[in-house]
Amino acid sequence: MYNELNNPSDRLKTRCGSAAFSQHRLGGQSAGCDWSRVDFSFFSFFFCILSVIDLEMSFRSAASAESLTETDGFFRSPVVLDPAEEYRMTRKRRGVALIFNQERFFWRLGLNTRNGTNADRHNLERRLLELNFDVRSYDDYKLVDVLEKIHEAAEDDHSDADCFLLAFLSHGENDHVYAYDGKISIQDITAMFKGDKCQSLVGKPKIFVVQACRGEQHDVPVTPCDAVDNDVKTNETVVDACAIHTLPAGADFIMCYSVAEGYYSHRETINGSWYIQDLCELLQMYGGSLEFTQLLTLVNRMVSMRRVGNCNDRSAIGKKQVPCFASMLTKKLYFRPKK
């Protein structure tokens, strides 16, 4: 369209109108002047010049936009994606699985003892061993020791491993989880395993399981149940304290949370937490055959069918819980048996 109006007089006629253009042209002819020498009045001439400039810039912008679109299309190469593509899980080792199990806390933190968490650790150890993980468990570690173990794992050579897993069983707050004597940012933990820090895990699944409370309500606001003494024989439902926010981690990460943000995570004082119980049961049934995010969806459904039964806080009776996961995986993930 720009070339079609390349003649200045044509652009002038388009912008000023045919009638006005003809009037000025006739005026020039009646005075015996050539059209190229027509003397417009000052205001008419000024207006038309501005109009032509404005029109010229509009044409150039349109041409530029068209050129930009064509350039974008030129550099965007087609990518053929296979929706069934899986992570390679046939290396020599399945990979390391770290479990940080926090039952007791330094008294100054004011956090309740997490009765039942040892059952979670035991169940998780057994299921991960069945999936061929190299399981390393740590009970009630201080903050400096937790950081040291995580740092060591990040510096390990994972070249012959399929993936990596880290589970934290504790109380939580905002974007932190608690060690024995202090809290650590979940983002700081995951950052140690990103590509620029741990190159041997680039392109491999990195699984983080967080069993901790993420809010201050069930389906409606309630007062948290008080934890009971270690020698209690009744399987009572209690809650893990405080809140955890969902955080982005990076490509090939998957963050598995025991509860959606803003809600309590329930734990039975003998059998362990609802989330770890059901996760382990489904890992036993389908861990070697079902795609991992599909398995986590089943965990969500299974936990959501539970209700609080026996609890000191009567207002908590009948309340529920729904887990969630945030997947940044780029392929399907299966834990098929090693040959």
Automatic annotation (TrEMBL):
Look up the EC number in the record and give it: 3.4.22.59
The UniProt record lists the Caspase family p10 domain at 243-337
Key words of the record: Apoptosis, Autocatalytic cleavage, Cytoplasm, Hydrolase, Nucleus, Protease, Thiol protease, Zymogen
Give the reaction(s) catalysed: Strict requirement for Asp at position P1 and has a preferred cleavage sequence of Val-Glu-His-Asp-|-
State where the protein is found: Cytoplasm; Nucleus
Keyword Signal (UniProt) = no
Q: Which GO terms describe its molecular function?
A: cysteine-type endopeptidase activity
SMART domains given in the database record: CASc
InterPro entries registered for this protein in UniProt? Caspase-like_dom_sf, Caspase_cys_AS, Caspase_his_AS, Pept_C14, Pept_C14_caspase, Pept_C14_p10, Pept_C14_p20, Pept_C14A
User: What Pfam families does its record include?
Assistant: Peptidase_C14
Which is a GO BP term held by this UniProt record?
A: proteolysis
Phosphoprotein as UniProt keyword: no
Q: Which residues form the Caspase family p20 domain?
A: 93-217
Q: Which GO terms describe its cellular component?
A: cytoplasm; nucleus
What family is it from? Belongs to the peptidase C14A family.
How does this polypeptide assemble, per the annotation? Heterotetramer that consists of two anti-parallel arranged heterodimers, each one formed by a 18 kDa (Caspase-6 subunit p18) and a 11 kDa (Caspase-6 subunit p11) subunit.
Name this protein carries in UniProt: Caspase-6
